[in-house]
UniProtKB/TrEMBL annotation:
One Pfam family named in its UniProt record: HTH_3
Domain HTH cro/C1-type: 13-67
GO molecular function, one term: DNA-binding transcription factor activity
UniProt-listed Gene3D superfamilies: lambda repressor-like DNA-binding domains
Any GO CC annotation of this UniProt entry: cytosol
Taxonomic lineage: Bacteria, Pseudomonadati, Pseudomonadota, Alphaproteobacteria, Rhodobacterales
Keywords: DNA-binding
Protein name: XRE family transcriptional regulator
Amino acid sequence: MKHPVDVHVGKRIRHRRWMVGMTQQQLAEKVGIKFQQIQKYETGMNRVSASRLWDIAEALSVPVAFFFEGMDMPVEAQSVAHQEDASVPADILADKEALELVRSYYAIPENQRRRLFELARVLSDVA
């Protein structure tokens, strides 16, 4: 039986892999495993060990904590997280438009990307 945490981590692996435009085969090669294992991780069929998750995070250029973002938290932690930023959905990567926006953003050359980021901050009135 699939554990909800394994399913969530697998979805986050798949979303990040998709965001950076990497295939399962490419990720598997970077991590040193077969692509079928990536498939099993992404569906939650197999649990990802801590050391393997570390390798995957490195290959996808994210911190390990990225894979746990959006998980259901204890009630106390939820209220604190909700107060910190109520304007962003908990699972923003489930939104295909948001994913496409992020991929497009990172395709922009870095100097232009910084300028676009500053423009977005000004337009949204975020300090």
